[in-house]
Amino acid sequence: MAADVRAPGGSTKRQVTLQDPWLVRWGLILAAVGVVGVLVLVPVINVFYEALARGAGTYIQNLLSDPDTRHAILLTLTVAPVAVVLNVIFGVAAAWAIARYQFPGRTILITLIDLPFSVSPIVAGLMFVLLFGLQGYFGPWLRAHHLQIIFATPGLILATAFVTCPFVARELIPVLEAVGTEEEIGALSLGANGWQIFWRVTVPNIKWGLLYGVILCNARAMGEFGAVYVVSGHIAGKTDTMPLRVEKLFQEYNLPASFALASLLTSLALVTLLVKVGLERKMQGDAATARQNTSKASA
Amino acid sequence: MSTLNHRILPGFRLSLSYTLTYLTILVLMPLAACFAKASTLTWGTFWGTVWSERALAAYMLTFGASFAAAVVDVALGLLIAWVLVRYEFPLKQLFDSIIDLPLALPTAVAGLVYSSLYVQKGWFGQFLVPMGIEGAYSRLAIVLVLTFIGLPLMVRTMQPVLATFDDETEEAAMCLGASRLKTFLYVILPTLYPAIVTGFALAFARALGEYGSVVFVSGNMPYRTEIAPVLIVARLEEFAYGEATAVAVVLLVSSFSMLVSINLLERWSKRYGS
Lengths: 299, 274
Description:
Helix content of chain A is 79%, strand content 0%. Chain A is mainly alpha-helical and 299 residues long.
């Protein structure tokens, strides 16, 4: 086997003959680190530097003393979880249908789920304005019933749900396919009903993959800008989410406050990455144990 | 295959009907509304809006900047993926996880910080602006921020392909007398072509629709630094819904064709890989 020839301790330790010269190696490493430093790392440091440039006191004041900023934080904390819950229910249902059954139009359905990724967020927002706005197709009906979707929280939720719709389903389909159906069919043969199978067999098997999808979906939901920008109408203290508030403060040349709020969003991104790395390790570990178990069973 | 169990497991109807209902309300109906609205325009109005000078300038900029950013991403992504797969160095795990940051960072934050880094008083701007390089409120700024957005897509597409490349092929090339550079150019690089094309298409498609970051850094001047999504917003703010929809349909059609070609490419590279 090829693995035996390799030096122990990871696939990146290569045979001496295939190792690039020292100069090439470190030259390329430095170039790559430089690129990521300039494009990614320095911007992140800059966010916190600009936010804290006038001291921690001003930073906290920037975040908490402005009622519109406070409202924006609360609004994001309302809109994003609702959108995530909607997409989790959808994602589980869609992944179950796609990974567990063969049916005509299955490939089309997969493409359809991916569709929101390729629609520009601005166009997504526009589509909801065309449907539910005052001059939209449902506009007159909504007004007659005193319902408001556009320029209000429901519109924000719809736009956010549209943009983040593929995340959970996309994560779960491969996980469900990899887990396989043996345990579920086993449970079925022992007399479990559908919901029992789902909660006691399927959910424990896919929990890390599900959490992974939730984390990514949530990060995108909290940070969504374009789609929300169109449907919100930018009413300060009413429909401004955190990213929209960042833009408004930027337009008002209130850069310290803008960066203070941006630093919160950046922290969210960093936490997301941290959890993501942890989950990736967990899932790899699970996959490794599963492989061991199957090889034991076959031996 | 696990899916060929002839629907023994319960829940097919429930899950499929829920999925279809949700997709219809959230995705299909809005899309239909967009095309329905566009079809109410007369051919002349539609064509006049879509083919106006300002719109053409916006498409040119959107496609040009996205293309340029995706090309830069190919080069940088190849470098980073290569280093990640082939070499060991301190803090590599950290380096590896930072690559994904552009996917997790809200685009508005990216725009905000890029605009402040490259202005004259910014960390990079103080060196670049005296040299005549305007990295903020210019077309270059758009390309820069789109490069940032697309970078992880490129790296993550190439990384697994590079990782599966086996030593034996390289050894064979070496035994036949090829130099390292020759081996890279004629043996390793050709196996990466499908991944490069897929990654390019992903980064390009993502850049085409990007709004949040660009609106901060571009300055949004009609004819000069106005991208197509910004034009749609400008039309919307004038309550010219028809015109906004016409431009949106152009963007939709181009991103759908990107989606279809990405799917075809993935199918092609799967066949190519096996």
